[in-house]
Amino acid sequence: MSLIFILDDSPLPARYGVTASHWANQHRLPLWSLRPDFCGDVPDSHQHVARTGYCVTSGLYRSDTLRQEVNAVSALPTADAVIVVPNARSDEIVDLPGQRLFSHDSGQTLVLRDAAQTLLTLHADHYGRWSATPTVETPPELRIGLIGREADHRQAYPATLAALGDAAAALHLTLDIRFLPPATLSVDLHELEGLHGVLLPGGSSMAAVQGQIRVAQATRSRALPSLGLCLGMQSMSTAAVRQQPGYAEAILAEVAPDAALHSFVAFADHRHRCGVMPFADGEMHYNHRYRFNPALLPQLKASGVQVNAHTDDIVEAITLPDHPFWQGVQGHPELASRPDAPHPLITAFLRAALSQRG
Predict the structure, then answer these.
(1) Per the database entry, which stretches of residues form a coiled coil (predicted)?
(2) What pLDDT digit, counting tens, does each position of 107-129 carry?
(3) Is the C or the N end of the chain the one with fewer CB within 10 Å?
(4) Which fold has domain 136-357?
């Protein structure tokens, strides 16, 4: 089989490669990507964790056949693959043999065409999940707070919102998602009123941490179901440590390198722990350079938080046993979620929120 090049014109990280992922999944073909650049305030544009052990464009998160994303055309395969290419780099492949398809982002739909006809039209649902069938939305039954700007979740890193949609569909629920930008949260956190649960996501922006810590403290005291993913779990752990006398200033080293007390510290060997690794009875996507400070394990335990998963001296998961649901994981379960197979941790979170609703 020859190469199939898909020229993608989407300016948004969350949409780049979506049609190519669907096409490659549908035809069971390996998917490669020529790495795009994006303009604007999109810090999480390249945060999907590939099995090859590095991060690629976030819109590729639903590919089941992804092989690699490369910077150089010379690193692309020469046969038997679908290759998604940003329109801005189309001149770089002009002399390469292979079929050309064209992906157009209209804003409302993503359309894949060849020179003669439309091959695929995708529509997004309430959670940013793309499918060939438009969805009919039903009235929301559960209010979930999602930390972060709406634009970040819809335009840059779509996996968390989509994973909530997968879990909600499995439970036959419709969610009312309330986006909570951490930089603009009120002093009394009245934004949490009326919510049935809060999800604290990962992300590369350290500006979110102080707000996430405040939310974690509040959801603990209010018995509001909460789930923390990667950076969200780090914020929850830090919130717990801060409850102990003398530890109120604990903070992530990534946020404040010169602070006197670090709740999360860099690995001694300065590794970037990135890839898909064993976790419990399955796998977990990981993307972090910092781990919970082992010296603070006594303070974490004294706060009532339990470490319920670890790899050597790396804290992988935490829980608060006397809380309806207050759990965090160092990895990214949202990246393993699929419409027909939501991640069980996210489903469990929504079940707890449903119980909270009563």
Answers:
(1) none
(2) 999 999 999 999 999 999 999 99
(3) C
(4) Rossmann fold (3.40.50)
